[in-house]
Amino acid sequence: SPRPMGAIPTPIHRAGLIARNTDAMRALLEILRSIFGRNRELVFELARREVLERYAGAALGSIWAVLTPLLTMGIYVGLFAFVFPVRYGDSSSPWMGAALILSGLVPWITLADCSTRATGLLVGHRALVRQVVFPIEALPAKTVAACLVSQLVGTVVGLGIALVAVGPSPMQLLLPALWITQLALMLGITLLLASLGVWLRDLREIVGFLANIGLYVAPIILLPSLISGLPRPARWVITANPVSHMVWCFHDATVLHEFAHPWSWLVFPVVALAALMAGAVLFNRLKPAMGEAL
Questions:
Q1: 66-93, pLDDT tens digit by residue?
Q2: How far is CA 15 from CA 5, 62, 215, 216, 245, in A?
Q3: DSSP H helical segments within 171-294, as ranges?
Q4: Rounded distance, CA 87 to CA 166, Å?
Q5: pLDDT confidence band for 13 (50 / 70 / 90)
Q6: Using CA atoms in the order 251, 256, 258, 261, what is the torsion angle rounded to 10 degrees?
Q7: CA distance 217 to 113
């Protein structure tokens, strides 16, 4: 029975909580062993095929996997460095604003792309999902891996501009830790959305809408000078947005070269771990019913 508010936890309640935490950890470890262990070659091959199939029939083929993020980065650099030059702080360099925007834009584009693709992932591979012997968790993993191609290209461009604008810094050595945290967040969200997408077919439109407004509720194209001029409720929305803390961490490590947002370095990994565990638990619980639902 539910425990009254303010009551001291009994050994039974504590045992139940421990059991739930143990089940969540077991589900997470099982999925990670499958993805990074026994099925890692399958995940790599599926991701490679997805990248090739995205641009099948195009004249330039898989070259678009590199060209698309390059063109996107070029548009933003041109807009914010030359057409509408954005200044940050006391810096007079137009590259500073462009570097700051790109440092948050690149991970956001990857996250949004991955989330949108996740909603119809299992529905689009219903034949594989219905196979009893196929490791279904390989499908969310391959989507995450395929989306990382654009981030790799964008990161090279963004980091290059950051080096031009502010130079190198030991803070940039923290970028691999941020990439791993982002990977955990993306995998968790993909597991969640892929699981729910089997039953909620309108989820793709909902996630697509949220991805479209995401640029305006996170500090991606909104630099501090713009955010400070917003109404207080708007600033609260931006601060409460978990994606904002991911962006602020990338700002700190790539461009600002200091822990300008110390709380974000705590919030971002906590949110990523929570999303990963929630995604693993939901995926494992719904996995037996997915084949029949499709």
A1: 788 888 878 877 776 677 666 555 555 6
A2: 18, 53, 43, 44, 34
A3: 175-197, 203-213, 224-227, 232-240, 242-251, 264-293
A4: 13
A5: low
A6: -40
A7: 17
